[in-house]
Specification:
alpha+beta, 4-stranded antiparallel β-sheet, 38% strand
Length: 478
Amino acid sequence: MAAVWQQVLAVDARYNAYRTPTFPQFRTQYIRRRSQLLRENAKCGFEPGLRRQYLKLRSQLLALRYGPLSEQSSFRASSVRSSRTTLDRMEDFEEDPRAQGARGHRRSVSRGSYQLQAQMNRAVYDESLVPTSVAEASRAMAGDTTLSENYAFAGMHHIFDQHVDSAVPRLQFANDDKHLLACCSLDGTLSIMTLSPPPASVKVTLKGHGGPVTDFAWSLSNDIIVSTSLDGTLRIWNTEDGRCIREVRDPESSELLCCTFQPMNNNLTVVGNSKHHLQVVNISTGKKVKGGSSKLTGRVLSLSFDAPGRILWAGDDRGSIFSFLFDMATGKLTKAKRLVVNEGSSICSISARSWISREARDPSLLVNACVNKLLLYRVVDNEGTLQLKRSFPIQHGSQLVHSIFCPLMSFRQGACVVTGSEDACVYFFDVERNTKAIVNKLQGHGGPVLDVSFNCDESLLASADSTGMVIIWRREQK
């Protein structure tokens, strides 16, 4: 049960930046002392149930004092589980604002929570909150293993080839799940795979699109998947039986290229199309949200919300990243900033993260832009303005290659990102290492690696390539 105490420390560390904002030295001392006390308690023979109860109470008290955590995983743990994301219980955002109050659909998060999160988000970009430069307390919990050792892989756990000869552009593990994985294919289908109990197998195949499937997203409760296709439709699927719940056609009859859920309200999905348009769609009604549309300079290829769901970034095939402010009450999008990464290049992947390491708050954006580099940007204000922090060399000139932040914030010094590459390799980079940033390199694919995904505890990594192969990699156990 030492893992429970590590979770307690993780919760404390996540709130650490809100303690004594003008005295960062105290924050380091505080978390170091908490680490010592928790390690001592881990040796005692407390009942497992008591430890879990302490973790729950500690999380609740910190949430009352400072507000809910800003990472999506924290929202899932504290609020989303109590509100299943099913179509009959999700909130309607009708085009007529007066209809909102009359329909009576329940929010997954209360309006008060939205206001509290907005206050937290302002604090996230408050320059008076200075992150500590070293993470002594976190490393004390990690033992002697290095970041490279932490991301060493023992080999392939399983290979899926049901989409062979058709590229698999996207794959993603289910939220807070170790063994449930989904992917989409240019053959027009999606697969939901289960990795346990062995042997790994395809649980259900989602069939119905009339063209290549370009993107998909899990709802936070994993009961729904939305997908986009070149056939011009957005489809909503039941993940248990593979049934298509609803089909939403693009009003412009254009190819749909990407989609993402609004993290605080899974009733809303943002969709990007080939005619340069971005649109917020209410999946329970199949209608577009009034004021929830905008136009980019090119085909919309990538989307990512920040964790609180108030900033949306969108990338197009002409090298631009736009930031939009999202109105929680109405679903309205307001264009805020534009950054030209490289004129004419495709922004094929955007991934947002509020924290880089446990003691160094640093809102960041990870970008693949077909410039033979993986780009890491710093989010410098509450309008989503981006400033290039650093880049990492990879082979990426034309394919729609994606990258991710590692889901767990490491107890070790350093933080990892993972990316595909056109040289058929998977690369791990330490974003805080100035030289020799490559932490690991996985080889085994027969074509460009298009997407990567970690499960929730980082014990398994999935990667997909242009030949239709999906490889599950197993991390070495230390």
